[in-house]
Amino acid sequence: MTDPNIPPDRVVHQTTVNNPPPRKGGGAALAFIVGGLLVVVAIIAWFVFAGGRVPTPETRDLDVDINVPTPSLPQVPDRPAPPELPRPAEPPQVDAPQPTPPPKG
Q1: Of 42, 61, 73, 92, which one's alpha carbon is 20 to 30 angstroms from that of 99?
Q2: Rounded to a whole number, what is the largest CA-CA distance in the chain?
């Protein structure tokens, strides 16, 4: 048996180094480059097949008359004459109040 209080003659250390494999994340950059190349090819094809000009639509004969008659209010029947009202009567005439006589007694 070994005495646990006595140190061993030789100390062995073990170190583990983990090196993950390198990541390959160039897919997004490659897609961006391919998309840019497609746009460039499309622009070149447009210049080759269209001659570099924007196709114009055929011209049409547009003869438009913008003179319109002036609008007017609709025709309505004439208003009837107002009814004849009687003349106002004279206001009633009230005599001036007389002083009241003093009480008798």
Answers
A1: 92
A2: 154
How many alpha carbons lie under 13 Å from residue 46 in its C-beta half-sphere?
10
What are the Cα distances from residue 70, in Å, to 15, 67, 74? 100, 9, 12
Q: Which string of b and e fits 63-74 if b means at least 16 CB within 10 Å?
A: eeeeeeeeeeee
Average pLDDT for runs of 10 along the chain of length 105: 70 82 79 94 86 74 84 87 84 82 78
Rounded CA-CA distance 5/60 in Å is 109
Nearest-5° Cα angle at 15, 11 to 17: 170
Q: Which of 60, 40, 59 is nearest to 48 (CA)?
A: 40
DSSP letter assigned to residue 5: T
